[in-house]
């Protein structure tokens, strides 16, 4: 009976949290697939580098999700009668940890480039880049430790715990710095131009996803729970969800841009933004976003040419009519 009670306790602490993490991560992957489809449908003429990066991130997330599924199947189906089997890591879980680290690293670099474009602040951009490099390197070290010592409990030992903690703290600091920078320098860059001031839902969606607040909350929970209970695997659901939120926040940021002829245009590149909508005469050259300016410039020139032709024809018609009337009056006078 004691064995049965111990097994039940272990199932709650191991298989239960793994199952929750698996379900939540698969939901996150569904949003990744949907947002990737929206991106390629809405911005088919976006920069090739950006499209290739989004496609690569989607492939990474797909492979990561497959590895999560294989890990869940191994623990929940193959080894289900032995709840204690989850004390050891698997090769699939180690590979998933590596792919998740690479995905988060690329996403944070893209956010760093976005912060640089908005602020031109060397300090903020350097902090974000340095933190994502540290987080990526230490997460790879975490994977190496799990491969060498196949046991989650080994992560609670003195050097391993410090490496994991510093790595996750670096990712958290990078995400927090990115969020603060976007809040300071975006100046409403992600509010759609037709969004009313009291549209709190769109604003909350922008804060939690496009600007990465949800990533901060999940990463903070991951860090705190691991530091509090490193010998237990309660941190696994937050680990599985973290990479899904990173890629979905990036896709949300990309999909919030204005679409102009298949190109994605950020707020600061548009002719008139939400903060300047009541100011006339502030137009940047070669950038057109207003409804009245959706046609290419060549159409405007054609319309002007047509208008000039109509004016010329009208002037010719008027002169001919005046000449005929003059001749008619002259004939009447001569006859009279």
TrEMBL record:
Keywords: Membrane, Transmembrane, Transmembrane helix. Signal peptide: none annotated. The chain crosses the membrane at residues 16-40, 52-76, 82-110, 122-142, 162-186, 207-228, 234-254. InterPro entries: DUF6534. Residues 198-258 form the DUF6534 domain. This is DUF6534 domain-containing protein. It comes from Armillaria luteobubalina. The lineage of its organism: Eukaryota, Fungi, Dikarya, Basidiomycota, Agaricomycotina.
């Amino acid at each position: 009976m004691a064995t049965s009670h111990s097994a039940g306790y272990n199932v709650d602490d191991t298989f239960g949290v793994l199952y929750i993490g698996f379900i939540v991560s698969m939901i996150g992957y569904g949003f990744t697939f949907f947002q990737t489809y929206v991106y390629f449908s809405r911005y088919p003429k976006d920069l090739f580098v950006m499209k290739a990066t989004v496609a690569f991130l989607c492939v990474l997330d797909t492979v990561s999700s497959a590895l999560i599924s294989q890990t869940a199947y191994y623990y929940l189906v193959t080894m289900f009668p032995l709840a204690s089997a989850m004390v050891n890591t698997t090769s699939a879980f180690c590979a998933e940890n590596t792919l998740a680290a690479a995905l988060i690293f690329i996403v944070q670099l893209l956010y760093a480039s976005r912060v640089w474009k908005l602020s031109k602040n060397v300090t903020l951009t350097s902090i974000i880049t340095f933190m994502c490099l540290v987080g990526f390197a230490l997460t790879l070290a975490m994977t190496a430790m799990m491969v060498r010592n196949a046991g989650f409990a080994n992560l609670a030992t003195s050097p391993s715990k410090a490496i994991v903690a510093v790595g996750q703290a670096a990712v958290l600091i990078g995400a927090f710095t990115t969020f603060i920078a976007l809040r300071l320098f975006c100046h409403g860059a992600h509010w759609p131009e037709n969004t009313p001031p009291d549209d709190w839902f769109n604003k909350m969606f922008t804060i939690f996803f496009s600007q990465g607040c949800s990533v901060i909350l999940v990463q903070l929970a991951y860090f705190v729970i691991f530091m509090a209970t490193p010998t237990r695997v309660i941190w696994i659901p937050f680990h599985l969800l973290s990479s899904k939120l990173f890629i979905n926040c990036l896709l949300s940021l990309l999909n919030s841009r204005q679409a102009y002829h298949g190109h994605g245009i950020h707020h600061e590149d548009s002719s008139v933004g939400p903060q300047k909508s009541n100011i006339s005469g502030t137009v940047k050259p070669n950038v057109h976003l207003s409804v009245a300016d959706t046609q290419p410039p060549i159409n405007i020139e054609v319309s002007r040419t047509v208008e000039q032709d109509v004016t010329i024809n009208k002037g010719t018609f008027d002169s001919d009519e005046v000449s005929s009337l003059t001749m008619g009056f002259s004939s009447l006078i001569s006859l009279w």
